[in-house]
Amino acid sequence: MDLALIAVAVGIGIVVGLTGMGGGALMTPTLVLFFGIPPLTAVSSDIVAAVFMKPVGSWVHIRRGTVNWSLVRLLVYGSVPAAFLGVVVAKAFGDPEQVQHTIKAALGVVLILAAVGLLTRLYLRLREHAAVRDGSAPPLPIERPDVTPRPIPTVLVGVFGGLIVGITSVGSGSLMIIALMLLYPLLKASQLVGTDLVQAVPLVLAAAVAHLMFGEVDWAVTIPIIIGSIPGAYIGARLATHIAGGIVRRVLALVLVAAGLKMLGASNVLTLWVVVAMLALLTLVWGLLRRHFGYPFFGGGRDVDPEYQI
Where are the domains of the chain? Predict the structure, then answer.
């Protein structure tokens, strides 16, 4: 049993519990970059492990009533067949070496897109909270009415997310939740996370079945991930009430960019310079945005209502 892999899975599980995202976006590149596991094997093993981890968080949200079942149903209509198809498409790229290269490049692009989406989510939450605080937008009631489902766009979000998850294992919590937030801005943050987590269960199950049939699942990798990630996610969920989620998400964005660049073949020096430049630029830009919306230049999110946690 690889104890180092279990320890890493615990850490990534904690991040997932804290933020509701980052599982595949962190685990798959970690397997490739630090454990030397081939990309297709990393994707296959991570997806199968996610089948065991996703229901843990989903059950919590189901019990709390933070799941919009109408949206879950529409998303599943698109995501389940698309996830299965995504695995088949990945396998059909060509010879094994070409498959590994293509998946690694796709991972790099998706990770950087996930980082952009994460930062977009932070900005939208900050702007939304400021508008409510200033009275330019009505306060959101504690009990919000159910949103009206938009069938075609929602199914298309499911198709897009399913394809990306099937090919790269990334996207069920990093990209789809951003699309849901833009499509349904009245959903509470807790409803966004809960709905996304629940729809991700059949999504990753479909992808896992396809990877078991056509992929390269390595149980010596999958089992340590399961052992570590489940308690990690539980610990992260417990810590979520004590640590500002906005800080964790900003750090996560930097990690995603660094992992994406490495997947695309960037050198260590270039990756380091990009991360340092992003850290300086994001600190400046974020501080200026906070001042623009009437908050102190520095702040981790405790001055923002939890519903708008940034």
Answer: 3-308
Mean pLDDT for the chain overall: 80
Alpha-carbon distance 25 to 22, whole Å? Answer: 5
Give the sign of the dihedral formed by CA 106, CA 236, CA 127, CA 291: negative
Residue 186 CB neighbour total at 10 angstroms = 11
Mean pLDDT of 45-70: 84
Q: Which of 31-45, 84-98, 215-229 has the lowest mean pLDDT?
A: 84-98
Q: What's the half-sphere exposure (Cβ side, CA atoms, 13 Å) at 163?
A: 9
Cβ atoms of residues 259 and 39 within 8 Å: no
- Whether residue 19 is predicted with pLDDT greater than 80 in this model: the reply is no
> What is the per-residue burial (b if ≥16 Cβ within 10 Å, else e) of 71-100?
bbebbbbbbbbbbbbbbeebbebeeeeebb
User: How open is the CA angle 15-110-211, to the nearest 5 degrees?
Assistant: 85
Are the CB atoms for 75 and 155 separated by under 8 Å? yes
Token pair, residue 43, equals: 């994707």
* Sign of CA pseudo-dihedral 189, 23, 107, 282: positive
CA distances from 164 to 110, 143, 171, 204 (A): 8, 34, 6, 11
